[in-house]
Amino acid sequence: MDFLEVIEKRKSVRKYSDRPVEREVLDAIVRVAQTAPSSRNSKSSAFMIIEDRDTLDALAQMRDYGSALLSGAQAAIVVMGDESRTDLWVDNCAISATFVQLAVTAMDLVSCWVHCNGRPRLKDVPEGAKAEDYVRELLGIKEELRPYCVIAIGYPLEEE
Description:
alpha+beta, four-stranded antiparallel sheet, 5 helices, 4 strands
């Protein structure tokens, strides 16, 4: 599939087949994401692959809206930023997350971006607990890294 086909084909998908995503494929997606451009080549983005069912189900609870789809995914990639490397870590994470989604599409998988940076856990309590803090604690993320988003990944459901 050429680049323009990948761009045209990419869309957010919230339902996945039960087929596991091979670890080699997930590793390849992260390698692509690591090539994403970054401010002053700071390479401030970091990635964590999640395949464990219990952890995916727990990530689905990070917010009371928009994250439940993670419980149906076969894998996820957490995109994190190191704010000590650049003040543009958020921008770098967004670029890296986009590379993740494009690589997913190129490998005939589907994905959906679930934002956690700056998002409340409860929609009706915007000043309350934050999704980012939940993800950090759940996954034991190092203090210098900030969780930005979680990208659900899977094979598409077979069309009827």
